[in-house]
Structures are given as structure tokens and as C-alpha cells.
Amino acid sequence: MRRLFLSATVLFWLAVSGAWLGARLQPPLAPPAAPAEARYTLDEIARHDRAEDCWMAIDGVVYELTAYLPEHPSSLRVIAEWCGREASEAYHTKTRGRPHSPYADSLLPAWRIGVVS
Q1: What's the average model confidence in pLDDT over 69-82?
Q2: Residue 100, SS3?
Q3: Coil, helix or strand at residue 24
Q4: Assigned domain for 69 exists
Q5: Rounded Cα–Cα distance for residues 38 and 77 (Å)
Q6: Is residue 108 part of a domain?
């Protein structure tokens, strides 16, 4: 009986140590891949050229700004003319040589939908 107990105990600890060692030798799991960001051509962006459906490309990033237009502090006409277009220059200069504020820059990520391909 004692021999059976000792054999079972040894086999148990060999199995446990083998499982532990096997787990330690496996490479760590890779983090999940980030989802691919949507890519849009300038032709696709150009189809969204109205205040009721407004997309813009700024510095290679595409923004869907339809819901933001009524919140924009200046006239709707000022920003709506850039719907469906590459608007980097207009954004950085406000078409008058003045940059947008850091606050305006902080709002952009909320409206990001992809990148220009």
C-alpha cells in the first residue's frame, strides 16, 4: 500500500511539473490585432459633399462631420463648402491664415471614420 501511495505521489508531481514546464516554454500569446481602419478614396469622399452628408479629408484622415456642422461656431456656409473635399489647407488656416485652436484639434478624433487611401 505504501509503495502504491509513493508511486502515485511521484507520478502526480511529475505530471504537475511537466505541465508547469510546458506552459513556461510556450511563447506568450500575441495581443489581438487592431481592427483595420477603413480606407476611402478622394472620389468616395467627394460623394459626401452636402451639409446633409458631409465628409472631409484633413491630413490624410477622413471625418464624417454631418452631425457636427450645426455645432460649428461659424456660419454653416463656411464649413459646408469643404464637404466632400480635401480640406487640410482650409482647416490649418481657416482660409484666413489663422490655425484652429487646440480645442478644435481635440474634437476631430470623435468624428474620424478612416483614412484616405
Answers
A1: 90
A2: coil
A3: helix
A4: yes
A5: 28
A6: yes
SS3 call for 77: helix
The amino acid that residue 41 corresponds to is: T
The C-alpha atoms of residue 104 and residue 101 are separated, in whole angstroms, by 5
Give whole-number Cα distances, 45 to 65, 83, 97, in Å: 12, 8, 25
**Whole-number pLDDT of residue 19:** 59
pLDDT score, position 13: 73
Which pairing describes strands 85-86 and 112-116: parallel, antiparallel, or unpaired? unpaired
From residue 58, alpha-carbon distances to 9, 23, 61, 116 in Å are 68, 48, 5, 9
CATH number at residue 87: 3.10.120.10
Q: What is the number of structural domains in the chain?
A: 1
pTM for this prediction? 0.70
Within 10 Å of residue 91's Cβ, how many Cβ atoms?
21
